[in-house]
Write a structure and sequence with these properties.
33% of the residues lie in helices and 24% in strands.
Length: 543
Amino acid sequence: MSMIFTLYPYQNMKIFVADRISPLGVDYLQKQDGFEVVEAYGSSPEEVEEIAKDADAIIVRSDTQITPDVISGSTKLKVVGRAGVGVDNINLDAATEKGIIVMNTPGGNTVATAELTFTHMLCGTRAIVRGATGMRDGKWERKQLKGAELRGKTLTVLGLGRIGAEVAKRAQAFDMRVVAYDPYLTEDRAKEMDLEKVELDQAFIEADYLTVHMPLTDQTRGMVDADAFSKMKDGVRVFNCARGGIINEDALLDALRSGKVGAAGLDVYEQEPLPEDHPFRKEENLILTPHLGASTAEAQESVGVEIAEAVAEVLNGGRIRNAINMPSIDPKDLESLRPYLDLCHRLGAFARQAAKGSVESIKITYFGGIVDVDCVPLTRAVQKGWLSGVVGDEGVNDVNAPFKIKDLGIKVETVKSSESVDYNELIEVCTFSNDGDLRSVRGTLLGMGNDPRIVEVDGQAIEVRPVDTLLVVRNVDKPGIVGKLGTMLGDCAVNIANMSLSRAEEGKWALTIFELDEEPPANALQAIEQDEDIQEARVSRQG
């Protein structure tokens, strides 16, 4: 089975467009077979809850709040789409817990936001705003309004995603030196973009200009604070067209007044709209715009069409793009990952059924060539497999699997190991129980057909296909045991498709795993368990 979150096409699906998007986007949805499009702009919170009850999808911009009440009251909701980047108006925790996909459109306003950022940078370098205002007032302040040049200055970019990369490209066209801090930026990517990757403190130290292009998270909130300003050059210029709250506003105000910051430009704020009496409004060397990042005709049309297409694709059983609460996988990457996703799901199911006692933690280790790929989807597949026998396949998907694992109090650790192994790629799942019990299972793909195999159980080498039904037996290592087990299964008409056995030490305990066409009846399994030569017998269901 595919472990990517898959929806099958439904008929008569209701799409609730709660905020006004491009008419082209609405028109696209209306032309799709089986979609009922409900446009209800400016609805009250109570009206939103009522309309959302039987909606399959909701599309919003920034106005409508998708609260826990909206989510809990919905019975069919599968996806919430944001026509834009920020998802502050969508309760991600509630959506994730319920397995609802939350998507945005990070590419649609990329150029618009990058160009606005550069507009702020230019206005913070040359006294454009004051000069234009003075001209209207009859002034001629040529001598008083001396500016600077961008050429030769160092621009620090915090966050090198789509927008940050576009800003960097434009800065280089102005002959600026660009340094970037981004925890996910690789050296190869930095080299490709002809810029320098630096750590956060160094990013502050190097900046003549600093621009923020990161999402607002617990990690980035207040990232640019008083301590950060203390590390910067005197007269540094600072700009934020990303999300309010990344720059501490009190610290910025102090830095402006002290001269540490020579000029600044903001398009986003901790509180929006910005209060009329906010002290920012009185600072001459601070240029303010009312969250105009995506406010171009081109961007609005682009994000409206993009989110309409993305929502329709999900509802029609296609790929998932730009999901906030689950990995988005390129179709080409998905095809290469699909066999691993299936293997990981089965390893997760096997590990749960092998575990004894109450599991406290799960450790997933990747070996070999697979460490070079994005393993997040694989980790989610392990979690989903582990949960499948706990909450049922219908209650868990790639969206909420990590959330539900955490809710059970289980810690998940992932490791990419450089240790040499006997296979090109190897995946290990270990479970640790509160009574000290440790269980492990390793799996890989074999041959040109990428056939999944379990190749080790609790340190014992084995080779078995993780078919839907396995019988796992620990037995005394002596002649006749395998024949006895085969007879017992044959007596209850259970066919053995294949088997594999292994022993740790001659004459001690051996491990035997049978691939079965069907599950043995309870009385047969009980008879096997009660045999004096059997230490342990259990059915492991992988399907």
